[in-house]
Amino acid sequence: MTVVLCIFVAVLDGFDTQAIGFLAPAIARSLALPLPGFGSVFTAGLVGLMIGAITLGPLADRFGRKKMLVLATLAFGVFAFATAFAHTLPQLLVMRFLTGLGLGGAMPNVVALASEFSPRRLSRVCVTVLFSGMPAGAVVGGLVSAALLPRYGWHSVFYVGGALPVAVALAVAIWMPESVRYLTTLSSGRARARKIMFRIAPELAQRDIEFISGEVQHSGVPLRHLFTEGRAARTILLWIPYFMNLLVLYFIISWLPAVMVRTGSSITLGIQAITGFSLGGVVGSLIQGRLMDRLGLIRVLFLEFVFYIGFVVVLATQPLGVAGILVATGLAGIAVQGAQAGLNSLAAEIYPTSMRGTGVGCALAVGRIGSILGPIAGSLMLAFNWNAQQIFLAGVIPGAIAATAIVCSRRFGYR
Hints:
The chain is an all-alpha fold and 415 residues long. The protein has a single domain (2-208, 221-412), classed as MFS general substrate transporter like domains (Growth Hormone, Chain: A, Up-down Bundle), CATH 1.20.1250. The protein has 15 helices and no strands. The longest helix is centred in the middle third of the chain and has 31 residues, at 232-262. The chain is globular and about 70 Å long. The protein starts with a helix and ends in a 7-residue tail after the last helix.
């Protein structure tokens, strides 16, 4: 139940994050904005994502993951709904920033809760399946946008994207248990931990068992502990591919339709291409955990970045028809979003429970810096009239840097 509720949150996170990319041309026309100038709207949301991840993740380690997840999901639902009533650029910027705060705060807690309630042997599978929800949400966002936009306008998409998270937040508040590992760190929480554990293993209810945390509890500034006890190099080598991969991911989901339009393709093909990329992300996320278990974490992540580079080169240099474009973007989605699911699983593994929300949140926050720079880079390339070939080839650089960082991580013996 916990993992399923986490998946629902991830789907809605993907829906609300991606919807703005689908709706950018329509909103820009409605507000009389030049399309390249719409980058500030993407940036506002991504800055909110970064701040939400770096603040609500550590707060969850201190005050409880479930509380922060409910708060974050309510926040991005309420402010996504309010985005429909924005009539000026400043109003749109504020609403996207506030929506981003909730979106950024939800994901560290989703990762932490899903990893803690997963059987250890299936932990990678559960976390990567969880992250298939984000590209799945983007697919749903594309389908909903395509269905509602022509008939009801861009406002209607935000009505849907706002109401659903509020409903899911209420479901989380009612049915999701709090992290047992978190509860065992509180003297007042051990009775609640017993009730949850007895639901998981009813045969233990007849025995006098006390559940306690077996981990060292860290005091002081949570972020500092990411660089102590031999974790500094692991943290940095995690942050580099996080940054580079989310730079690529958010450039693609923000600007691919606009780049396709600039090459003379229809907006329909642009939306189909980004939908194909998102469908590829669903497939990549679903198979990621099993691949890492069988082939090894480092090998799978490295090959995904290499494949991504190959697909980018093909898109840039080969004349492709509609089918070829959709296949290439779908395969790129498998590589890029599969790698992101793998990185999220790795982040959940390398930090102890007492700092897992902080570790995942800070990795996501560093990645969000990349996700901010990706759309900014796209707006600059469009403003300087780069052609599609130049824009695609520029994407080789972050992929190569990420692959190098993954190779350097082999020294830690990840399996």
